[in-house]
Amino acid sequence: MKLLMLSYVYSPMVGGIETFGQVLAHQFTRMGHDVAVATAAPADGSSDDGGAVRVVRSLEWKAVEPLYRWCDAVIYNNITLKVPGPLLLRRKPVMVIHHTWLRRLDNTLGWQDRLKRWAVSRALNVCVSQVLAEDLAAPSHVIRNPFQSDLFRQLPGSVRDRDVVFLGRLVSDKGAKVVIDALKLLLSEGGCPRLSIIGRGEEEARLRAQVSEAGLEHAVTFHGMRQGEELVALLNRHRVMVVPSVWREVYGLVVLEGLACGLKVIASRSGGLVEAVGDAGELFENGNHVELAECIKRTLRSEETPAWRRKVDDHLALHQPYVVAEQYLSLLEGME
Predict the structure, then answer these.
(1) 2-146+320-335 and 162-317 share one CATH topology?
(2) pLDDT digits over 49-94, tens only?
């Protein structure tokens, strides 16, 4: 099958949608399909995906139209109105994979959201979580996200000499402040685990100031941006990952990456994070640093058991790239 993926963001940009698109495109090619990706994401000078996937760095119709004529089906990796042609022409099967809420940050529907909701009613919709499917209020299938299982893994011989890690953009929505508040509480109780913060963002200076004001300089390390094997090696040195988003996450790929690296995961009870964690981790109330502090204490004291390991393995098995790709291909073949 010849598949055209339209993805406003893509590698080398870093993020959940970017990673998803690249993982799925590569898995499709491994399964014998021809894949082209059209994206607005600029190249960084390296070869595009090692040549495995054809990448066109433009979403202008003059660049997309030849690919549209070539393909058997179109996949929108998140809806974008930058390329309305396939949705309007309806000459070929169109699938839209939803990664974000189609509404404003204040939970209202803007004209853009209403237009997108009308546009996707003309396509086969797939949501990456059940909560997103319920919010879309249109017929849709639910297929969970894949993770980079060839990258995120437990490294033999790793020594877990660090306690807690936060991995994500340093913006208010991601809730790194809540973890620091939890550590401040634990410090006041006479004990304080060590925290690593991995990521960059507009809140970094404010978070550093918070750490200093709380007297936690000895316990918190800012590592900046880490990627690839360097990131995996650093994750393998930790025991617990905290995903404290205060925003209602659609899913939470970072949860799977942490579990795959052997970390115990604590996440906020926020939207799709509940589905990302499943039975393999702990949840706490959004923004509640007191409950988070208790979860951290309890989790650091707990021992890894065979029952927990089985839960993690079973959960990760559902998110293997080939398992997810087969579900997408089954839907695409049914559209022909």
Answers:
(1) yes
(2) 666 899 999 999 999 999 999 999 999 999 999 999 999 888 999 9
**What's the distance, Cα to Cα, between the start and end of the chain in Å?**
10
Crossing angle (nearest 10°) for helices 204-213 and 176-188: 10
- From CA 58, how far away is CA 69, in angstroms rounded? 16
In CATH, 162-317 is 3.40.640.10: no
Report d(CA 136, CA 100) in Å as an integer.
Answer: 10
Sheet containing 195-198: order of strands:
220-224, 195-198, 162-167, 238-243, 264-268, 282-284
Statement: residue 117 has pLDDT above 80: yes
Q: Has this prediction a pTM greater than 0.85? A: yes
Dig out the tokens for 43 from the structure.
Answer: 């190249």
Q: How far apart are alpha carbons 149 and 23 in whole angstroms?
A: 10
| Residue 292: CB atoms within 10 Å | 27
For the stretch 166-184, pLDDT in tens is 999 999 999 999 999 999 9
- Other residues' Cβ atoms within 10 Å of the Cβ of residue 111: 7
CATH number of 2-146+320-335: 3.40.50.2000
Domains in the chain: boundaries? 2-146+320-335, 162-317
